[in-house]
TrEMBL record:
Pfam families given in the database record: SOUL (PF04832)
Record's protein name: (wild Malaysian banana) hypothetical protein
Family: Belongs to the HEBP family.
InterPro entries with a match to the protein in the record: Reg_factor_effector_dom_sf, SOUL_heme-bd
Organism this protein belongs to: Musa acuminata subsp. malaccensis
Length: 199
């Protein structure tokens, strides 16, 4: 029932709120280990969230874990997505919903904190899955509920960017979309965040 009603009952990444105001929060995230997959949604039946099943299989969310131990890994929240720039060869980050044709998407699961370094996590069987360390990072963050449509996300990212720049923060990268609930959660009870990396 908690999944439908939006209750978050899994581990979430550790962070410190450095500054909070009505428009946003500045958070400093601790180092963490992520499992990620980068893919072209057009090659996965046009599904911008096509990487979810690949990562879910790695951790064993839906059956036998597809990692070398095999070890079931607890699900955490949020699921983070970022879409890359126009496809040239290899790309990297920003948001699932803004990925158009010819864009690649990177989806991440933050692994449980018991894995303090990437080499402690089980190696994936699927070569598309990469397990890596992410260092400490600072983000401007806006939380919102509802659906994460292209327009809803783009509006919040633009507003967050304007507010951060107004207050003298330097944005140093593309935005991330963090979604904390499964897709069957009632939209008005969902927890979503847009995050912009800052200096």
């Amino acid at each position: 029932m908690g999944l439908i009603l939006g209750k978050i009952s899994v581990e979430t990444p550790k962070y410190e709120v450095i500054h909070a105001c009505p428009d946003y929060e500045i958070r400093k995230y601790s180092p963490r280990v992520v499992a990620e997959v980068t893919y072209d949604p057009s090659k996965l039946r046009g599904d911008p969230d096509g990487g979810f099943m690949i990562l879910a299989n790695y951790i064993g969310a839906l059956g036998k874990p597809q990692n070398v131990r095999p070890e079931k890994i607890a699900m955490t929240a949020p699921v983070i997505t970022k879409a890359g720039p126009e496809k040239i060869a290899m790309t990297a980050p920003v948001i699932t919903n803004v990925a158009g044709e010819g864009k690649e998407v990177t989806m991440q699961f933050v692994l449980p904190s018991k894995y303090s370094r990437a080499e402690e996590a089980p190696a994936p069987v699927d070569e598309r899955v990469v397990v890596r360390d992410e260092g400490e990072a600072k983000f401007g963050v806006v939380r919102f509920s509802g659906l994460t449509t292209d327009q809803a996300v783009a509006e919040r990212v633009e507003q967050l960017r304007r507010c951060l720049e107004r207050d003298g923060h330097k944005v140093v990268g593309d935005f991330l979309l963090a979604r904390y609930n499964p897709p069957w959660t009632l939209p008005f009870l969902r927890t979503n965040e847009v995050m912009l990396p800052i200096e």
